[in-house]
Amino acid sequence: MSELLELDGVERTYPFFALRDVCLRLDAGQIMGFVGPNGAGKSTTIRIAMGLISHDRGDVRLLGHSMPGEQAVAKQGVAFVSDDVGLYSYATVGWHLEWVASIFPSWDADYASALMRRFNLHPEKRVKGLSHGERVKVLLTLALARRPRLLVLDEPTSGLDPVARHEVLAELMAVLQDERRGILFSSHNTQDVEQISDRIAFIDRGRIIDSSDKEVFLDRWRRLELELPDGVALPSLPGVIDVDATGHLAVATVNAYTPDIPAAYQCAGARVHGVQRMTLEEIFVATVMTSRKEQAQ
Amino acid sequence: MSASIIRPLILKDLYLLRPMMIGALAFGGFGIALMPFGETPFFVGWILLFIATVLLGIFITAVGVVTERKDRVHLFVLTLPTSPAQYTAAKLAASAIAFLVPWAILLSTALALIATTGIPDGLMPFLAALLFYALCYYSLYLAVALVTDSVMWSTLVIIVGNTIPVFLIPALFRMPGVSADPDPSGPVWTANVLTVLACEVAFSAAAVGFALYLRSRQRDFI
Amino acid sequence: MHTKLTISQADRRPMYLQLIEQIRRRIAVGDWGPGQEIPSIRALAASTRVSVITVKRAFLELERDGVIVTRQGRGTFVADKVDLGRDLRGQELDEHLVAAAEIGWDLGLDAEALAARLREIVERKDEKRT
């Protein structure tokens, strides 16, 4: 079975928000980055995948098990980390490690110790005395040392300093050395998502607005810097989703780039000053803006 | 495999609730120890015993259910191979054990003490009804905690729960069978008393049962 | 075997191109000799903290250019070619020139304009060196 997670046509309605037709698929050996504005439905989607929230319509399969009914079995191989998950305040970090170790036969004690050292955590410290970042690191340790087939992470690096983030990303990539394992993570840090994701999904206002291989995303999008001499009008071209023209200069945002596009502009009399690739953040913002415009029409 | 997660969950809760169980036994035990030594010591003794069982119920629920949800530790437990239903079942079982075991020990010890010493036997049904009230109080607080995060509701339960004894205790003294008479003429365990006990048990079960029903209808475990 | 490659976040070029350049450099300086096995895609992805799909893309292009060779079930190896070092640098130059030509075309420069620009830059660099 190569699908670690599958959401098909998932819907859930709340008084002021609704998830509509959410489809996600994570194959073994892949990392999927899940990006969306606040309130877009990232956490809701992830919690539906984990069986914490029930869905109105659609299919959810976690490690092949139907959710939320079979979640107890499914979660033997799935670890979930979210920064709003708490730990027992008066117990120590070490107690948590021992307790979780006693539940999972796959627990790797050596790896757990190595992670503790790398994350600079002390087993005798009580959870009460931990900072937010330290608590997240403990949760990550508890998740990683179980060696789960699937890791589901909701904002795993939020609140972490750059050094800790660096360590966490290294550990996440180490997981992928085993091609049977996979990771789904949501993040606002588009730089991290851009760097380590194999697949990326964008969500806004309860809908998946785009989902693709990362390299395809980065290849498809360009920003063209154009100069328009007097009297020149830009033709409307397929693949160009926005043209921002002021005075004699214009910027065209393209989401289906081919070299034909700047050629067509040149034929129309415009000068192409630059063809820029776009960062994932820029692509994401442009995608959301376009989607919202379309929804409003 | 699904059954095997419930045991670690229960044991973990019992481990974390150990201090409360031991505290209740110590505090209540001290109260029981005072009882044979005269009227005033008996009076102080049963008050301590009553308070011990009431506090036991409140702390078990406050620590085991309320704080766990406030600190969002219940989400952590749900990252383990378990479902919301299993979590609730284990929570209920652990909570019940943590309360009922010390409670039963204290109740039976107190009753045995009364039966075997010079303390009037008519005080047995009184103590029993009182401790069964503590069971009601605990059940109601647990029921509310299982269903809602609302501080308003739990505060209401505590206020009501602490006020009822003011009326309950004098009423219990007036029941047939209950008396401080060292030489009771009739049976101690009268129908009235047994009815009161049965009602208290029924109320406890109904409160928790209703809470479980409401909880089973909740769609989101948050 | 030296497996360290570095991806710079400040470098605006696509990550797969950076990887290709880094791998070519390793081979050119002799750290990865002809016929020698190189780290697997996943091992490289983990050590550089870059997605597997990006490393795969880099490997695909390097294989297409004959720089590396994948033997089914055995791993990936540097191609057995004599004098790969010099050849590789030459190929690297060609790659850069192709990229420059593509950008020039996007900007509407023809071959002469591109050559003129290159001459300008080389002359400026020579000035700085003296």
CATH class of the largest domain in chain C: Mainly Alpha
Residue stretches of chain C low in confidence (pLDDT < 50, at least 5 long) are: none
Question: Approximately how much helix is present in the residues of chain C?
Answer: 55-70%
Which radius of gyration of chain C do the C-alpha atoms yield? 17 Å
Characterize the main sheet of chain B.
Answer: none
- Count up the domains of chain B: 1
Q: Approximately how much helix is present in the residues of chain B?
A: over 70%
Gyration radius over CA of chain B: 19 Å
Low-confidence stretches of chain B at least 5 residues in length (pLDDT < 50)? none
Mean pLDDT of chain C: 84
Q: What composes the largest sheet of chain C?
A: 3 strands, antiparallel
What CATH architecture of the largest domain in chain C do you see?
Answer: Orthogonal Bundle
Number of helices of chain C: 5
Short description:
Chain A is of the alpha/beta class and 297 residues long. Chain A has helices at 42-49, 71-74, 93-103, 109-118, 132-144, 162-175, 190-196, 214-220, 260-267, 280-296; strands at residues 3-13, 18-27, 31-35, 57-62, 65-66, 78-82, 150-154, 182-186, 199-204, 207-213, 222-227, 240-246, 249-254, 271-277.
